[in-house]
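Example (one chain per record):
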Amino acid sequence: MSNPERKTNAQLVDTINQLKAQSRDTGAAVWRDVALRLSKSRKNWAQPNLSRVSRYAPEGATILVPGKLLGSGELTNGHTIAAYSVSNGAREKIEAAGGRIMTYGELMTENPTGRDGGVTQRMPSEP
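Predicted structure:
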């Protein structure tokens, strides 16, 4: 049996389509970039750890993770983080540090263009 040519997860396909539509409507390249990254194979998705977020993101930043956020490391600042998926450990640590976890849809509603104090950083995966 060969690999399917397109995504079979209906929720993921819907998320990708929402991101592309938001990019077309607002002209914001950030949503198109995330949609293209999520369209690729899961093994190529970003999977940063909390240690990377706390090391590189400024305090109070809104972080956009085009993939899954993992829970290794500690988080001391209250970041707002939007990711396709968040591990249980990461979720607990973010909430304990006073942070907030959002879906892509919630972030697009709050900040349609991805600018103006909104998305400050996109987290790549670990090197």
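Caption: The mean pLDDT is 86.
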